[in-house]
């Protein structure tokens, strides 16, 4: 286990009051837990700006499955990025729409390229990416 270090933080009273309300609503047991989570999130966001960093995450997308050639194009793109794709989940939302969740692991630069290729396709209605640090 990593050594725990104590440090002090000075903030405005109203900022702390608002923070305390939020962490109480989220169910945190202490400010320390909430601050650790915020620090981790900040570090992950910064890693997203460094092309060579390794991350893991998911890309989710919703698209119309009956658009001619779209499913094949998505499959081709995924085969091209087989080295960063861990797994794919495909769900039929209704008669017209499908959702895919693509689990990824690898360098930021390649995952960004994959995400951009998918999100720029016509008839892909929505895309979202969520990343985390590989610990």
Q: What would a concise description of this structure say?
A:
The protein has 135 residues and is of the alpha+beta class. Helix content is 40%, strand content 30%.
Describe the structure.
This protein has about 140 residues and is of the alpha+beta class. The chain is built from four helices and four strands. Strand 2 (about 85-90) and strand 3 (about 95-105) form a beta hairpin. The radius of gyration is 20 Å and the shape is elongated. The mean pLDDT is about 90.
Keywords:
single chain, 135 residues, alpha+beta, Alpha-Beta Plaits, 2 domains, 4-stranded antiparallel beta sheet, 4 strands, 40% helix, elongated
Blueprint (SSEs and pairs):
Layout: H1 13-26, H2 31-47, E1 54-64, H3 70-80, E2 85-92, E3 97-107, H4 108-119, E4 124-133
Give the ordered list of helices and strands. HHEHEEHE
Number of helical segments?
Answer: 4
Question: What structural class do the secondary elements suggest?
Answer: alpha+beta
Beta strands, count: 4
Strand order, sheet with most strands? 2-3-1-4
**Unreliable residue runs:** none
Compute the number of structural domains. Answer: 2
Shape: elongated
Radius of gyration: 20 Å
**Biggest β-sheet description:** 4 strands, antiparallel
Helical content band: 40-55%
Task: Give the CATH superfamily of the largest domain.
Answer: ACT-like. Chain A, domain 2
Content of β-strand: 25-35%
Distance between the termini: 13 Å
Identify the CATH architecture of the largest domain.
2-Layer Sandwich
What would CATH call the class of the largest domain?
Alpha Beta
Family: Belongs to the transcriptional regulatory CopG/NikR family.
Pfam families: NikR_C (PF08753), RHH_1 (PF01402)
Binding site for Ni(2+): 79, 90, 92, 98
Organism: Dictyoglomus thermophilum (strain ATCC 35947 / DSM 3960 / H-6-12)
